[in-house]
Amino acid sequence: MSTSLLAPAENLAVGPDAGALPTASFSPLYQQIKGLLLSSLRLGEWKPGEVIPSEMDLAARFRVSQGTVRKAIDELAAENLLMRRQGKGTFVATHAEQQVQFRFLKLVPDSGTPGSEGPAQRDIIECRRTRASAEVARALALRAGDAVLQVRRVLSFLGTPTILEDIWLPAATFKGLTAERLANYQGPTYALFETEFNVRMVRAEEKIRAEPARGGREQLLKVAPGTPLLSVERIAYTYNDVPMELRRGFYRTDTHHYQNNLS
Amino acid sequence: MSTSLLAPAENLAVGPDAGALPTASFSPLYQQIKGLLLSSLRLGEWKPGEVIPSEMDLAARFRVSQGTVRKAIDELAAENLLMRRQGKGTFVATHAEQQVQFRFLKLVPDSGTPGSEGPAQRDIIECRRTRASAEVARALALRAGDAVLQVRRVLSFLGTPTILEDIWLPAATFKGLTAERLANYQGPTYALFETEFNVRMVRAEEKIRAEPARGGREQLLKVAPGTPLLSVERIAYTYNDVPMELRRGFYRTDTHHYQNNLS
DNA sequence: CAGTGGTCTAGACCACACT
DNA sequence: GTGTGGTCTAGACCACTGC
Asked: Worst-scoring range by mean pLDDT, A48-62, A123-137, B16-30, B197-211?
């Protein structure tokens, strides 16, 4: 990795360019700092919602200049892992915030703004412990047969059932999750995961298809059999690209649509 | 806006902090530089694919430090308007590049990578001049009845018709576009727009729904009537958020899916 | 007021590409 | 070698927050 942060004194010994020694496979200092910050986040040194040390403090801790720390933080902020607030500090991002409440839910009402319908009504249909199928195991990087929690729920807006979701979670990590806790918790499900299970979802991948309503889903969503639904398969990841949730959603799109911005 | 770039000499007169004079509504210098770069892009001073002047040259031109220019370019690069290549220079982004060939097409085959099926076969069903409906006019910021070009085409992968698209373009800007030119052009349609009509698409918004195949679309896509299709309504924008294209696509999702990454 | 993040500058050197 | 973007540092000052 070039300039070792295990011997940080070297970085200050020879001047402004100390961190940029020539190497075979070059890794910028700020990337290494970013990695260290990531470790601290992963290990829970700073928890979601908390402030992290100031740029100056971190610079002193890692024996680099403030600008280098800044660049590392900039990237983490761009990835939505940290949140900067001028005059206050830099905070660990959390799903329990109004601003980013719907960051992972791209289904919005055709008229009005996201959330304008008020909070969704959540009905937990079931929450049970089961064994991972081959497909679930592959998605969650488990072995087939490993224990998983399976949750089925319906989200309704203005009284209309709109989203049916099946969620699979590794039972080892989400030990103690029950239908009651899911139903009673106020706020995003991912915020509950943060506070109760110390799991922060960082990014997700979604595969979207159009499928006819069948297999009992038409009843739960109160649509005619065969009605086209949006099938949204999501894998959500924590730090270090570790998959932590598989979610299969069926969205009604008669009054809502999936909104995506390309750039 | 604070420090005026119309009187740039002031910025160098008093030292390192010259650009950060206190103001009522504060606008950082690099944001102003970004605006100037955006103007040059919009006015076509540098065309897609071309190099822009070096950071040092731009710094001299705008009478600011290289670091300030760098930050402006960084943001434009993050928005995919510019492309940096170490050792070579900074280039105006273009849709005519292998790397970003499919930046706006999120439909990928279930197995294999995007583009692994080779180039799509494009059949232009029609290309005609018509008048904007109220809906089209609203999307393209035109007046109802204004002249628009309407294109209908089918994209096929490995011989299977997979995407049916209706495209609406303001006729004033796309004067001279014909089915022949669309069919004969090798490469992304947006690359043709760049070279032939000097229109560069910068971002787009998509609204996605599940809808049954009907109205003749089932025949063009060779599916049974009522087959669920992904309906993708896209508005694409050039610089300054000017809408330049309305596109309504219907995607078969039996062998492909719409891939989206959330973060 | 002190402390935080945010901006700007200046200079040095590195990595990469072309000649 | 020369020129490009990329990294790192150091120091100054600005804008915002809260004591």
From this structure: B16-30
Nucleotides, chain C, CB distance < 7 Å: 3-18
Are both B32 and B160 inside the same structural domain?
A: no
For the stretch B136-174, pLDDT in tens is 999 999 999 999 999 999 999 999 999 999 999 999 999
- CA torsion, ordered B254, B256, B258, B261, to nearest 10 deg: 130
Per residue in B76-114, pLDDT (tens digit) is: 999 999 999 999 999 999 999 866 678 899 999 999 888
A171 and A212 belong to one structural domain: yes
- Looking at residue B241, what DSSP letter applies? G
Closest residue, CA to C1' of D4: B87
Same domain, A50 and A28: yes
| Chain A (170-229) residues lying within 8 Å, Cβ to Cβ, of chain B | 202-212, 226, 228-229
Identify whether residues B124 and B192 lie together within a single domain: yes
Chain A interface includes B79 (CB < 8 A): yes
Number of domains present in the structure of chain B: 2
Q: Are residues B66 and B181 in the same domain?
A: no
Q: Encoding tokens for residue A158?
A: 């203005």
Residue A247, strand partner residues: A167, A234
- Separation in Å: D17 C1' and A88 CA: 6
CA dihedral B207, A212, B165, B243 (to 10 degrees): 0
Q: What is the CATH number of the domain that holds B210?
A: 3.40.1410.10
Tokens read off for A64: 């680099």
Name the domain boundary from B49, B71, B92: B92
Which residue is closest to C6 in terms of CA–C1' distance?
A86
| Facing B228 at nearest CB: one of A80, A203, A211 | A211
**The model's pTM:** 0.90
Question: A78 and A123 in one domain?
Answer: no
CA distance B62 to B46: 17
pLDDT digits (tens, 9 = 90+) for A183-207: 999 889 999 999 999 999 999 999 9
CB contact under 8 A, A229 and B210: yes
